[in-house]
Specification:
mainly alpha
Length: about 400
């Protein structure tokens, strides 16, 4: 009985250390994500195109980095990947201070994307290994809270530092946070949990990896559509607030984060009990409602209601999609699953910002967010069609019976 309790224990030292490491990693990302465009515009007179490149070159370099990272994780090179990624991220963060022009700044963004891609793939893969199998949905939901917390407080901390002390204190503090990850990483890699065995690399048969990627394709597409809407919020919510004269639009992210924090434990347990079928369509409907309500919000109260709806949906869907992808692959390929999850997220944010920005340019930000909601409609249609197809393929006898009766 005691062994069973230990085996199903979620809040181990390794799990808490992983959450803290992931929080620090994403905090450095979010503190710079919202401040670098403003700094580039002020310091170097960057054009709108150059400002957009600051986000896009980071996203695409992180995506490319994860393609390599997933292969390294399959070969058991977890420690090397983690430390190299952290070192590259630190060098790039320090390099922002010495950037003398927009070209050097973009180079540092590429380097940071490479390092971040390596490290951000390692931490969730390590988390999926230490979480008990029967509590994977709950555990990944809690693990995702570290990312959510960083997304909610990172931009506020970064902007406060930039406005209050300038760019130099911002670089120093983000670099310090990055350095703090190194001893945490050492605690994770210096000893192996008692009940955990590192999965031995196994040869993958021809067609095996293709089959795995095929199983990951549907949740990756769904995650991409989810992230498209979030890209529109990250990039344009402040501008939208000015357009419709909404005061304090940043409160959207605060209440969105609070809603995610509240729903994660519940959604995790629901996933472990019923699977993704119980969460994805309700989550998509809540996100759809949040986006539509946002376009009709004329006060802070309306803004907060839309944020809560969106947060409840987003907080239910993202960990469900990530857990689903992890469960679709063998243990040694969890790095690839996490890489595809994060890549579809970054790709959705980048493409969403580009497409929705083009829509806003020719209409308005209100219309843009209504078009953004179409992504959730597409998600529901694609997922429902996949469920129907899966149900039919699993019950061929029903089709045969119907055919016999027609004869």
């Amino acid at each position: 009985m005691n062994d069973l309790i230990k085996t199903n224990k979620l809040w181990t030292k390794e799990f808490v250390t992983l959450m803290l490491s992931n929080l620090f990693l994403f905090l450095t990302l979010q503190m710079l994500l919202t401040t670098l465009p403003a700094y580039a515009k002020e310091a170097f007179g960057a054009s709108p195109t150059q400002v957009s490149l600051i986000t896009s070159v980071f996203a695409f370099s992180a995506i490319a980095s994860r393609l390599f990272s997933s292969k390294a994780l399959e070969k058991g090179k977890r420690r090397q990947l983690l430390y190299i990624g952290l070192f590259i991220s630190l060098i790039a963060t320090l390099g922002y201070y010495w950037a003398t022009g927009i070209g050097v700044l973009l180079l540092m963004r590429v380097l940071f994307g490479i390092g971040f891609g390596m490290t951000s793939t390692s931490f969730p893969t390590m988390a999926s290994d230490v979480i008990p199998a029967k509590r994977l949905g709950e555990g990944m939901g809690y693990f995702g809270l570290s990312t959510t917390l960083a997304m909610s407080i990172g931009p506020m901390i970064g902007l406060t530092l930039l406005q209050g002390g300038g760019f130099t204190p911002l670089v120093i503090i983000t670099s310090t946070i990055n350095i703090l990850i190194f001893p945490l990483a050492f605690l994770l890699t210096s000893r192996t949990p008692k009940n955990h065995k590192e999965p031995a690399p196994e040869p993958i048969q021809e067609g095996g990896k293709t089959s795995v990627i095929r199983r990951l394709l549907l949740p990756s597409v769904l995650n991409f559509l989810t992230s498209v809407t979030y890209g529109g919020l990250l990039s344009f919510l402040a501008v939208y607030g000015d357009e419709v004269q909404l005061s304090n639009p940043q409160y959207f992210f605060l209440f969105n984060a609070l809603a995610i924090i509240l729903i994660r434990p519940v959604s995790g347990r629901l996933y472990d009990r019923y699977g993704h079928k119980a969460l994805l369509i309700p989550g998509a409907l809540l996100m759809l409602a949040g986006l539509v309500l946002l376009t009709y919000a004329s006060s802070t109260g309306g803004l907060l209601i839309s944020a809560i709806c969106y947060g409840l949906g987003f907080g239910s869907m993202q960990p469900s999609l990530q857990t689903w992808m992890i469960q679709e692959v063998p243990a040694q390929q969890r790095g690839m699953a996490n890489g595809m999850f994060l890549n579809s997220l970054d790709f959705g944010v980048a493409i969403g910002a580009m497409i929705l920005g083009a829509i806003a340019r020719y209409s308005s930000y209100t219309i843009m967010y209504r078009y953004s909601a179409i992504a959730m409609v597409l998600l529901i249609i694609i997922y429902a069609a996949a469920l129907i197809k899966s149900s039919v393929s699993r019950n061929p006898d029903i089709n045969q019976t119907e055919a016999d009766q027609s004869i």
